[in-house]
Amino acid sequence: MLLLPATITAKEATAAQRLLTQALKSEPDGPVVIDASNLSQFDSSALAVLLECQRAAQAWGKAFTLRNAPPKLTALAKLYGVDVLLMPASAVSAG
Fold it and tell me: What is the pTM of this model?
């Protein structure tokens, strides 16, 4: 399981993406699970980072799951119309 940092804004997005991509590569075979419970300060850049992680996981043939998304992240994902991509109903209720 990968833990998101506390802050992902436009300022931190590139570094966060680089670190998460490296971590995804080193994850053993099986699903990629990203825990967003630590995320407290973010903007739409966090969604871009998560979408890129999902794309990378799928490219490597791995399932992708986002857990413990803060309510504000869920609302932002809904606003941008990417909630169905990142947060299936089961993931939203689990958080």
Answer: 0.87
